[in-house]
């Protein structure tokens, strides 16, 4: 990445971290994907029970591999051969995790987390249950405000995720949200996290590159 553009992105991340901290959430800027893992090791104890929401970012930066390393008791929703009922049980057990990992559809520069779910398990765990929530985000997830967050989901993350999941929705044909009413719709639960009562619960780790959708 061009060093001047990297600097511009870094300033944007730092502004967002400052806003998150003013909303009683923790933010961190790391340089590399390897540094993400190092920060996780600072935040989560070996042997802790951990879980995750659906996220391409977690795969791309190696977090899923790290959670599978044996260091933790990982409630692995992606484990091969799980039945629908077993996956549902993983989702429910995740509420009791010591740490829950996810990304965010968008993070505003004034320190709000905007998320859209199909099943609701990810946003539900982010809102309540796990002792810690650790969000991994590339600079591409930062937007100016909630209006831009909504637009980002309609134009980028919603259609991209529907395409990834092979959903038969209009957005997988045209590349943007059509506010469909199909049975395959994945945009069903919309949440905004504006603040936290427990300062040590929400942790957002930024890396100055693009991750996920």
UniProtKB/TrEMBL annotation:
Residues 15-207 form the LUD domain. InterPro entries: LUD_dom, NagB/RpiA_transferase-like, UCP020269. Signal peptide: none annotated. It holds the Pfam family LUD_dom. It comes from the Bacteria. This is LUD domain-containing protein.
């Amino acid at each position: 990445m061009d060093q001047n553009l990297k600097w511009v992105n870094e300033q944007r991340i730092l502004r967002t971290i400052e806003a998150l901290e003013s909303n009683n959430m923790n933010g961190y800027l790391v340089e590399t994907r390897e540094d993400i893992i190092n920060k996780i090791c600072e935040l989560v104890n070996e042997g802790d029970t951990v879980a995750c929401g659906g996220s391409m970012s977690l795969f791309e930066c190696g977090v899923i591999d790290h959670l599978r390393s044996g260091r933790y008791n990982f409630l692995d929703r992606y484990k091969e051969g799980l039945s629908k009922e077993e996956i549902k049980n993983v989702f429910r057990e995740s509420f009791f995790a010591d740490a829950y990992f996810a990304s965010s559809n968008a993070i505003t520069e004034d320190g709000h987390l905007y998320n859209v779910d199909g099943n609701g398990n990810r946003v539900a765990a982010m809102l309540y249950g796990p002792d810690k929530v650790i969000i991994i985000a590339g600079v591409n997830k930062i937007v100016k405000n909630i209006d831009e967050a909504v637009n980002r989901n309609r134009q980028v993350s919603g259609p991209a995720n529907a395409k990834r999941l092979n959903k038969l929705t209009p957005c997988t044909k045209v590349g943007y949200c059509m506010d469909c009413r199909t049975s395959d719709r994945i945009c069903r639960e919309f949440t905004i996290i504006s603040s936290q009562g427990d300062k040590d619960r929400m942790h957002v780790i930024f890396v100055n590159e693009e991750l996920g959708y």
